Amino acid sequence: MNVFEKCESNVRSYCRTFPAIFHRAKGSIVYAESGEEYIDFFAGAGALNYGHNHDYIKQKVMSYLDADGIAHGLDMYTSAKEKFLAKFNEVVLSTKQLDYRIQFCGPTGTNAVEAALKLARKVKKRPGIFSFMGAYHGMTLGSLSITGNTNIRAGAIGTLNHVTFMPYPYGFMESFDTIKYIESVLNDINSGIEKPAAIIFETVQAEGGVVVAPIEWMQRLRKLCDENDILLICDDIQVGCGRTGSFFSFERAGIVPDIVILSKSISGYGFPMSVILIKPELDIWEPGEHNGTFRGNQLAFVGAAAALEYRESSNLEQDVKLKELFLKNFLTQQISLISENIAIRGIGMIWGIDLANFGGNSLAKNITMRCFEKGLIVERAGRNDTVIKLLPPLTIEMSTLKKGCSIMKAAFDECLSSRF
User: Fold this and answer.
1) What is the C-alpha to C-alpha distance for residues 310 and 81, in angstroms, rounded to an integer?
2) Residue range 178-194: average pLDDT?
3) What are 106-125's pLDDT values in tens digits?
4) What's the number of CA atoms in the CB half-sphere (13 Å) around residue 7?
């Protein structure tokens, strides 16, 4: 028995799927103590959009540490925060003509979700929230209440209240007008469902199985919220910060949510950090009404500002589009042709191979295990973990991306040959 099995809680999960002791990483390659190298199609569950130990970001962080920069500052004014706020306003908000106040929450995405829910209820003075089937928003009680997975909800007995799940356009739910259904619920005095304070949504349900919302659906959702005095909250924790191409994933729909939630890759370096962006008229917090000891991660501010500088100079958005085209072609030409029962979904640098109707959970698990044995880290998502989710760093070299895809194709071939 190793020290992890001896000392660490049963709650550990990813180490069971990737049973190696990792000790070093660079770019899109992770190295194990055994000497094995792994191509990373996981990217810290979306927290490492710029890869591991990005040179430019690392240099900025190291310089800050060498200068004995403030390491912990609560929500006091610091030079690191000042630089991030100025850069984010210049590069993101002003460029995109977005008017948001920026709130720094506790360092995890789920804390930002909690803040968004709390604020929405405070603004509208209504307790209800509409979320969507298939949604994932975090593991604390408020976030868990709007998360669809019944397995992970099971541990919060009797505490997940005031949430109604609406149909997301996926599977059977694609067969009817889901926005019209929500309108009907809101307008029917006998529906038994009261008007919510907010509707929270993901433009791409990542943990839900890489389900991409149609542009028209998002536009109609925005219109529905406007017409019914409901706030629209966009959870951009996993698919924001350039994952779908543009900085925000909702930009392709031409909509502006009332509240936007960012975390994971906002810090640029994997440092814990989360924020919510709030339309100014909604910023009715009293001082300290939502706070936390680590709501001012100074190293994260440094990394986040450096990441934005890198985005400016590297033409990253166009690079993502080129890699998106490669992934789409690879998956449609090399994987989906294996069987008409394999579904391919994705956008930008997040793609899913859905095996629900072709081998299901067992085949998806065997393929990802074989990928790991061959030097590729890739995880599963979706209902019953039947979706193989590709989530490489945005900065991955094209040659490494191709090599990782070749490993995946070989894993498919080997698992299928032994199966049939």
Assistant:
1) 18
2) 96
3) 999 999 999 999 999 999 99
4) 3
Instruction: Return the beta strands (E) in 73-155 as ranges.
Output: 101-104, 129-132
Map tokens 């055994």 to a residue: 34
CA separation for the pair 301, 297 (Å, rounded): 6
Angle at 272 (CA atoms; ends 268, 274), nearest 5 degrees: 85
Question: How many Å apart are CA 55 and CA 62, to the nearest integer?
Answer: 10
pLDDT in tens, 356-383: 999 999 999 999 999 999 999 999 999 9
The band of 419, judged by pLDDT with boundaries at 50, 70 and 90, is low
Across-strand partners of 131? 165
pLDDT digit string, tens, across residues 115-164: 999 999 999 999 999 999 999 999 999 999 999 998 888 878 777 889 99
Per-residue buried b or exposed e for 374-385, using 16+ beta carbons within 10 Å of the residue's own CB: bebbbbbbbbeb
Counting beta carbons within 10 angstroms of the beta carbon of residue 228, is it exposed (0 to 12), middle (13 to 18) or buried (19 or more)?
middle
pTM above threshold 0.85: yes
Q: What is the pLDDT of residue 272?
A: 97
Q: Report how far residue 89's alpha carbon sits from residue 125's, in angstroms, rounded to the nearest whole number.
A: 30
Burial 29-45 (b: 16+ CB within 10 A, else e): bbbeeeeeebbbbbbbb
Instruction: Report yes or no: 112 and 261 within 8 Å, Cβ to Cβ.
Output: yes
Opening angle at CA 344, ends 340 and 350, nearest 5: 170
- The per-residue b/e assignment along 48-83, b for 16 or more CB within 10 angstroms, e otherwise, is bbbbbebeebeebbeebeeeebeeebeeeebebbeb
Q: Look at residues 135, 170, 195, 187 and name the one whose alpha carbon lies nearest to residue 178.
A: 170
In whole angstroms, what is the distance from residue 164 CA to residue 354 CA? 27
